[in-house]
Structure formats: structure tokens, C-alpha cells
Amino acid sequence: MSSPKSISRAPLSRVAATVVTSTVLTVRTPGAGFVDVTSEVAKFVAEAEAREGVVGLFIRHTSASLTVQENADPSVLTDLMTVLQRLAPETANWTHDSEGPDDMPAHVKTMLTSTSLQIPVLDGRLALGTWQAIYLIEHRRRAHSREVVLQFVGAAR
């Protein structure tokens, strides 16, 4: 059990949420893998003139997903793809395969990850950690055009 002296908290910040700004980000994926969308989300936050609040992301697909993951060592993303492939292999005799053998595994991988994220915005910037990035994960083998709804709710500058 940790003592109270090992935990600290920044002062509270309070603003009235007076702004809702939305857009749709279209991402062309090259096939299965991670696509870093952090800079596009940061650009949206800047264009929304966000000061403090939250940016929500929602992907409009059932065979691709979103995650926050490490951005420093690419081997992390490689290992994560390996894990997802092991958890939902194409060779599992799925009954749903109308779009090919990677169809149902892609749905399972989306269910295991996430279709939406919320990232705090503090002082006009995404409050991500030093080694964090926002990724779209394409679970299908072929290239796709994916849509991600971005929405900032909070106070503007």
C-alpha cells in the first residue's frame, strides 16, 4: 500500500464547456497494421482553437479500430499485431467469411480493441504521455478508406 506522500495532484482546472467542434478524418490504410493519426488529431485540436476539454474519436467501421499505444519502439506495434493474429487467426474455421478469410478475424480484433477514444485537452494540447500516440488499427489485409469522427467538447481560446 502506498503512503499519501507518494501521490500528488495538480491544482483543479475548471472551464465551462461552450464549444463543440466536429469533423470527419478520412484515413487511407495500406492494409493490416497501425496508422499513426496523432498529428492529424493535434491539427484538429489546434484548428478548433481548443483550450481545455476532451477530443473524442470514433471509427465508423467494424473491422478497424483505435488505440493509444507506444510511439517510440516500432517493435511494440509488431508484437501487438502478432498477439491480435494469434487471438483471432484466419484459420479458425469462421462461419462469417463473406468478404474473405480475414473478415471475421477483423471483427473479433475490433471487439478486443476499441472503436472510440477520449483524449483530454489541456492548455490547447493533447494530454498524451511522452511515449503515447493515437493509432488507427487496420485489421484487414487489403487497403481501405476509413472514417474517424473527431469531436472536441470544451472551452476555446
Automatic annotation (TrEMBL):
<dbReference type="Pfam" id="PF01894">
    <property type="entry name" value="YjbQ"/>
</dbReference>
<protein>
    <recommendedName>
        <fullName>YjbQ family protein</fullName>
    </recommendedName>
</protein>
<comment type="similarity">
    <text>Belongs to the UPF0047 family.</text>
</comment>
<dbReference type="InterPro" id="IPR001602">
    <property type="entry name" value="UPF0047_YjbQ-like"/>
</dbReference>
<dbReference type="InterPro" id="IPR035917">
    <property type="entry name" value="YjbQ-like_sf"/>
</dbReference>
